[in-house]
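LAB NOTEBOOK - FOLDING QUEUE
OPERATOR: T.R.
BATCH SIZE: 2
PURPOSE: Compare the predicted structure-token outputs for two unrelated chains run back to back under identical settings.
PRIORITY: normal
REVIEWER: second-year student, initials M.K.

ITEM 1
FIELD SEQUENCE / FIELD STRUCTURE:
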Amino acid sequence: MNGATEVSTGAAVACLGCAAWLLGGGQAAAGRARLLLAGGSPVDNGPPGRTRALREWARIRGRLRVEWWSLAAGLVLAVLGGSVLPVVAGAAGVPLLRRLRRAIGERRAQERRGDAVIALCGALAGEVRAGRQPGEALLPAARDSDGLGEMQAAVLAAARFGGDVPDALAAAARQPGAEGLRGLAACWRVAVDQGAGLAAGLDRLEAALRAERDQRADLRAQLAGARATAVMLAGLPVVGLALGAALGADPLHILLHTSSGLACLVAGGVLEGLGLWWALRIMRGAEEAAA
């Protein structure tokens, strides 16, 4: 029995080592040095086959994402528990974690667009106060405000070639996080059609957008404790399994190789997922209500 346990432990360690190698890269520092010294491509200091292998490895590493940790964890649990079910569960978790990663990336991009809109309003107000005309002032202000995405080129083209700047700003405002550009388009129309001061309107718009961003940040900080608590509670079953194994029991064998254990595993997994989804839904609803 001890021999089997040692074999399982050694196999698990080997799986963890392989996962760390794939996800972290065994020679990441050396690969990055080669890329820097070669101006973006691996140094050809060996046979052509080695160079092709380095390029292929760089391409594979570029496609590896954090969601593959789910499959790696499933492989480790499959070795420890002697069952294929953890591998299936780990493979099923890959698309879920990929969706979560993309949602986090979209939220960060949305926040960057919001910051870019605020910076654009402040820079444009400064250029107008310096004596430049609105169309002339928009060019350096929009060029310095990175983060607006592909619509930034359309806004710059409209300002440079005498196009309809408010329509270009309204089109750019369709991007998530860039909704403040609608207010900028309204200020632009009022300033051009009625001769009102553009700088004063931009100052008020910048102050309003900044206050809205600060309110969202404050709400997110208040909900950080609840979110951390939900994640911690979601990880308690894993801690329980580790404690059971440390006390000499074999919880994985019971969960994966007995009918009652499989029933508890399925019921616990469903309840765990529903509880985590419900907690995150409540926090998301609070953020949307505040917005």
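ITEM 2
FIELD SEQUENCE / FIELD STRUCTURE:
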Amino acid sequence: MFSRWPDLDVLELLVGVDDHGSLSAASRIAGIAQPNASRAIKRLEAQVGTPLLQRKPTGSTLTPEGTVIAHWSRQVLADARQLLHVAEGMREKRAAELTISASMTVAEHLMPRWLGQFRHVDPNVTIHLQVRNSTQVFADVTAGSCDIGFVESPTVPRPLHSVAVARDRLIVVVHPDHPWARRRRALSVAELAGTPLVVREPGSGTRTTLDVALHEYDRAAPLLELGSAAAIRTSVLSGVGPAVLSSLAVSDQLAAGDVKAVEVDGLDLERTLRAVWRPPRQLEGPAGDLVRLVRRAARLHMTTGNQVAAEPIPDSSRSSRSG
């Protein structure tokens, strides 16, 4: 039994002796100094336990045993080349695919535009979009089941890297018949915290942003916990109760007057939307191209008078991480 695998370079050298008739010719073609080639063959002879070269003043040629080993070396080298060929094909296939995991607000309201623009830049990339909440996006990115993630969460777990790609704002919305729709003065934060609301499920970026903003207040139990902005919007339209949603998710309904925005005094619910990825810090390939495209956008949609703007593009080495 060999204590370790033979080096492929020395097998290629042995095959070269068989093909070209001498060790000097084989080492020259392989670009190896002859003394180094001779030492490599001696190590292989020690491994196999038999001489492989007949060393003569006129040059070194294969022994009968060396001829047998050279024959099998050809097969090993052919298999190794096939392995590298398959691996290269897999790398090229992966390079031509992009798997994205995006939180629901980003996936529903921003990703279609971003991917439409990206398709014009690189139409040959196959794109797979997974719609999750922010906690699930972090899990996807950490597990390597996607190439890039987009989240609304205010924090990003280590060791993931992140960079801001856009901003949006959460707003309080109610049905036009709700008493808050007729208020002449803003709600207080305490009033909002003490009111049962229709909210997203724990783990979503929208829920996390709201929970962080109200963490110092006594909170009423949620009126309903729903798994998507669309479901919450439908609940508000049906008069179930007030809700806190991204302005992106209710822009059309606000413009039509189907829901009303309610001002809350002293509550800032603007948030940063981020791209997140695994180390290394430098993001390459289609994922890097997508993030750079998104961040080059000077403006995104205008929603109910509230801007959703792409932030300035920093140097890639300044991508942020937070715990």
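REVIEWER COMMENT (ITEM 2): The radius of gyration is 32 Å.
FOLLOW-UP: none requested
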